Hints:
Elements: E1 3-6, E2 9-12, E3 17-23, E4 32-38, E5 45-50, E6 56-57, E7 66-71, E8 76-81, E9 90-97, H1 100-104, E10 110-111, E11 115-120
Amino acid sequence: VQLQASGGGLVQAGGSLRLSCAASGRTFSSYVMGWYRQAPGKQRELVAIINIGTTTYTPDSVKGRFTISRDNAKNTVYLQMDSLKPEDTGVYYCTAALSIGSMLDGLGDYWGQGTLVTVSS
């Protein structure tokens, strides 16, 4: 599986962006999909997960502002980001894993190249 993330850019605080991650391969629907981000000088952190169905998880830091979704027909996962804050700035990576456990541990089987999100104050 190859993952290609897109949609990053520069946005003012309070604005919105939608990230997309297109996956190659026929087994996309079998993978748990997620987004991680890494800010300069900080550790990578989990942003959102969606399982092979429609169950999702977002940590408190983005809950109510970020929404993850997937379109298995298009082999694509999305991250809708609203009410963006300067602390949301970072490189966002999409990742695919065969289990929720691996995803939560940051041990995805496949990773995209990352897309930069910059939120100005």
